[in-house]
TrEMBL record:
Coiled coil, from the record: 23-77
Occurrences of domain ABC transporter Uup C-terminal (ranges): 14-82
Protein name as annotated: ATP-binding protein
One matching Pfam family: ABC_tran_CTD
Domain of life: Bacteria
Organism, as annotated: Salmonella enterica subsp. enterica serovar Eastbourne
Example of a GO MF term: DNA binding
Entry-linked InterPro entries: ABC_tran_C (IPR032524), Val-tRNA_synth_C_sf (IPR037118)
UniProt keyword terms in alphabetical order: ATP-binding, Coiled coil, Nucleotide-binding
Amino acid sequence: MAPKAEIVKRGSSKLSYKLQRELELLPGQLEDLEAKLEALQAQVADAAFFSQPHEQTQKVLADLSQAEQELEQAFERWEYLEGLKNGA
């Protein structure tokens, strides 16, 4: 009798509905975050930006920092979900 071939099961690369839906929505969210970031960067790049009251400039700079973090986290999440989808 010939030995049975070993069957190697790979982890499922199929995402749950919830994760698939999240992955589908992420590109739009990334675009929105990039647009928000560009708008904030344009404000900071304006020559008159730092002549505004300190409180106002600090708020914009804080918003800019927050937008950068949100964009980075969204990209990391997208990469993670793509990796799951592709079985990586």
